[in-house]
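Hi R.,

Here's the chain you asked about this morning:
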Amino acid sequence: MRKLKITEMGRMNAGEFRASEKMPLVVVLDDVRSMYNVGSVFRTADAFRVEAIYLCGITAQPPHAEIHKTALGAEETVAWRYFKETTDAVAELKARGYRVCAIEQCEGSTALQDLQLEVSARYAIVLGNEVKGVKQEVVDQCAACLEIPQFGTKHSLNVSTAAGMVIWEFAKQMLIQ
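And here is the predicted structure, written out as tokens:
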């Protein structure tokens, strides 16, 4: 096997990306403190043509060198907005017809492997702070909670890792058929 060169991969340019059809998914970051996590979520969002990222509360916003270090330019292609309060972002998404799901360990959570999406629906996922998770008042606004099963001693995953896993599951169900 031979590794492909970047020029052989047929990727779209930034203009083509902005004009392309997006997966109907918005990623909401609720007080994510690491700019490297923010950048990583941008890069994953670009890879799967996520509609937008909403940066909320203390979550850093581009342009910033630490975001760029992991985003590698995806912060310039993926649409994003800032909200001071995550609850305002969720309220707006719900008013626009999005089904909002917190990625959190809650009573009655749906295990990620049991998720059944309605392909014609629009979704938003909320990922929380690296230590405290998604704020309870935000969870209260959500239609559902999705949980990634874990089998070791730790109680959570890195937020950008969790985002990647959940975005991949949405892509499998909504884009890859």
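One quick note: The chain has a mean pLDDT of 97.

Cheers,
M.
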